[in-house]
Amino acid sequence: MQTATFYIVSADGPQANQDGFAQYLLFLTRHFVQQNAKVYLHCNDKEHAEQIAEHFWQVLPENFMAHNLVGEGPKYATNIEIGYTGVKHTWNRQLVINLADNQTTFARTFAQVIDFVPCDEKAKQLARERYKVYRQAGYQLQTIDIVYP
């Protein structure tokens, strides 16, 4: 069964700002890669994808995770692929982490979708719309509050 999990970002949590969210994204991606998942990070556009890829480079060497932008690097070579609407991810991805504002048409090709409910009201509304799309597509839905110390 296909599942979609929405992580709820708290307004007073460290993930509410761009750097904190980027750190959480690295943590979450590492969690799935350690389970041998082939992860696709879906971004708004090429510039957004490049920004996310840059975050993956800005870690300590012992925390580095091999990744590539769609169309770059050897095909099927990494467990983490970063792309955006208009480019085709490799076929062997089981899980998508959606970082795009309102892109859900790709979701039907993945067994598992990870999405986020940001604290900004406009972004929350877009997340609600994505939630509806996943529900209509038959995904089993769940929400998780991001817990922080």
Can you lay out the helices and strands and say which pair or pack?
Blueprint: E1 3-8, H1 18-33, E2 39-43, H2 46-57, E3 68-69, E4 80-84, E5 95-98, E6 112-117, H3 121-136, E7 140-145
Parallel strand pairs: 1-6, 1-7, 2-4, 2-5, 3-4, 5-6
SS elements, strand count: 7
Tally of individual domains: 1
CATH class: Alpha Beta
Percent strand equals 15-25%
* Number of helices, where a helix is a run of at least 4 consecutive DSSP H or I residues: 3
The helix content is: 25-40%
CATH topology: Rossmann fold
CATH architecture: 3-Layer(aba) Sandwich
The 3D shape can be described as globular
Read across the widest sheet, the strand sequence of neighbours is 3-4-2-5-6-1-7
Averaging pLDDT over every residue, what do you get?
88
* Largest sheet report: 7 strands, parallel
| Distance from first to last alpha carbon | 33 Å
CATH superfamily grouping: DNA polymerase III subunit chi
Tag the structure with descriptive keywords.
149 residues; globular; 30% helix; alpha/beta; single chain; 3 helices; seven-stranded parallel sheet; Rossmann fold
Brief characterization of the structure:
This protein has 149 residues and is α/β, with parallel strands linked by helices. It has helices at residues 18-33, 46-57, 121-136, and strands spanning 3-8, 39-43, 68-69, 80-84, 95-98, 112-117, 140-145. It is globular and about 35 Å long.
